[in-house]
Design a protein that fits this description.
Layout: H1 21-31, H2 36-46, E1 50-53, H3 58-70, E2 77-80, H4 87-100, E3 104-107, H5 115-122, H6 126-129, H7 131-138, H8 141-147, E4 152-154, E5 171-173, E6 179-181, H9 189-198, H10 248-259
Parallel strand pairs: 1-2, 1-4, 2-3, 4-6
Antiparallel strand pairs: 5-6
Helix pairs in contact: 2-3, 3-9, 7-10
């Protein structure tokens, strides 16, 4: 810890919830000066019922690799399978399982095993006809969190990704009370790429084909030289964030209104 670092107040292990605003502020002041590895080490020590939510993007993969070197029992992974991921993404999931041996809990839209199941229930191209409902249905985070009593998650978000993430803090509390740890909040894309190459971390093969941020195949495009790393996500739309990190209650309300 550097000489200018904030001192962490006396806290219980694990943290008692709900977390007060003053404790959250003190924790963020302390974590902001730490390295991603140190933030992760703190998270493993202090955060209750900790899991890592990941779509196996580069930053999430860095966190997975770092955790594998910090602890022999890293937090289990939660993968929200929208049913519309690229084949290369599903291949990467298997590569990560083999490399790290960490448990991967897979959650799909309720009652659906395949994209065909989903479309028979909700119609084809729901992401075009009702994007809010699509996001609410295909990213069943709350169901996953309730199934395992998840209280805290590690994410791969970074402030350098801009838009809603520009003011990202190391630790956040969402509208449901869930704690979100963002260990690489201060890293840029170049640092993430450097770590991936330096440590030979498994990565999505699509990244060698002009993609930089990979989501569902229908909302992900290649990125031109000089473009922002997330420019290929929801290109041409005002949307900048996946349903996983949107306000859950807002999405639920929108989906309910659309169903009327």
């Amino acid at each position: 810890m550097s000489p200018t670092s904030q001192q962490l107040p006396e806290l219980s292990k694990p943290l008692q919830l709900p977390l007060s605003e003053s404790d959250l502020s003190s924790i963020n002041a302390y974590l902001s000066s730490l390295t991603p590895e140190e933030i992760l080490k703190w998270g493993v020590e202090y955060l209750p019922n900790l899991y890592q939510t990941t779509a196996f993007g580069l930053t999430g993969l860095v966190a997975i690799d770092m955790l594998s070197k910090l602890t022999s029992s890293p937090p289990p992974l939660i993968f929200l399978d929208t049913l519309y991921h690229f084949a290369e993404t599903y291949e990467l999931v298997e590569d990560v399982k083999k490399r790290y041996g960490v448990p991967v809990r897979v959650f799909k839209p309720e009652g659906c095993e395949t994209a065909k199941d989903f479309e028979e229930t909700y119609g084809s191209k729901l992401w075009e006809t009702d994007e809010a409902k699509y996001d609410y249905l295909v990213e069943p985070a709350r169901r996953a969190y309730e199934a395992f009593n998840v209280k805290s998650v590690i994410t791969g978000r970074r402030a350098s990704q801009g838009a809603a993430r520009a003011s990202l803090q190391p630790l956040e509390v969402d509208s449901t009370g869930l704690l979100k740890l963002n260990p690489l909040f201060a890293w840029n894309f170049s640092l993430v790429e450097w770590y991936i190459k330096e440590n030979n971390v498994p990565r999505n093969k699509l990244l060698d084909q002009g993609y930089r941020s990979v989501g569902d195949w229908h909302s992900t495009t290649k990125v031109a030289e000089g473009q922002d790393e997330r420019a290929g996500r929801w290109a041409g739309k005002e949307k900048t964030e996946c349903g996983l990190h949107e306000d859950y209650f807002k999405m639920k309300a929108q989906a309910k209104v659309a169903a009327q």
